[in-house]
Design a protein that fits this description.
Length: 217
Amino acid sequence: MALYKYSEARFIDSLVGAGNVRIGTLFDYRKGEHKAGISDATEGTKLLTHEPAYEVLQGNTPRADSFSKHLGFNLVGPGRATFLDCKFERHIEACDCFIYCFSRKFSAAVLREFEGADACAQITSVPQFCEALTQALAARVAVKFEGVFPVRYQERIEQWNGANGGSHPALIKQPKFMMQHELRAIWSPLHDGPIDVQYIETSNAHRFCKRISTLAT
């Protein structure tokens, strides 16, 4: 499957010419200095909620364990608790990580979603492209490549599904961005402390992408 990178022509040319890339961070995308279609002050966060009208929670069960893990209410031992017309809320924030964004759609409509973008590169081999980025990034900072994941377009207030933590906060974007059809390559840092955007001047990534026309509809 091919993926697509939209940006200004000068950045696309440097990508396909020399493998020049900017690998951002989750927290960096919160900054208002980014152009429309990129900046989101709520990146990496969500509010997990649960509003039982009536529920009996039995201890030492998978649901009780999940309740404790994801909503913070710890039922000790085999006892039980009854909830009536109450509400649980838990603010969740993802750890900062390195991110490189793509789109799975090639069209002029997607291009218009990114302010200032006027060019597009097709990633012809996603696994090899990401491996090249991983090698270049790992030469600067210790990281683990987690994979390429589709973004879920939803509100950041999410009802608990009763089984797990639901959508990962690093993969949530508001529905107004859904025309971007975004996927994210993610790398976790292998050290504690803050991380910074990485500007890679040359990499083998250019071998696995090419510039293409953006006149498609």
